[in-house]
Amino acid sequence: MIIESRAYARAGLLGNPSDGYFGKTISIIVKNFGARISLYQSPELHIEPQEQDLTTYRNVYHLRESVSLTGYSGGIPLIKASIKKFVEYCESNNIRLSNKNFTVRYGSSIPRQVGLAGSSAIIIATLRALMQFYGVKIPLEVLPNVALSVEVDELGIHAGLQDRVAQSYEGCVYMNFDKAIMEEKKHGLYERLDPTLLPKLYIAYKTSLGKMSSGKVFNDLRSRFDKGDPHVVGTLSKIAGLAEEGRDAIIQNDHARLFHLINQNFDYRCQIMNISESNMELIQTARNCGASASFTGSGGSIIGMYTDDEMLNKLVVKLKDINARVIKPYIV
Question: Which residues belong to any copy of the GHMP kinase N-terminal domain (predicted)?
Answer without folding.
Answer: 84-171
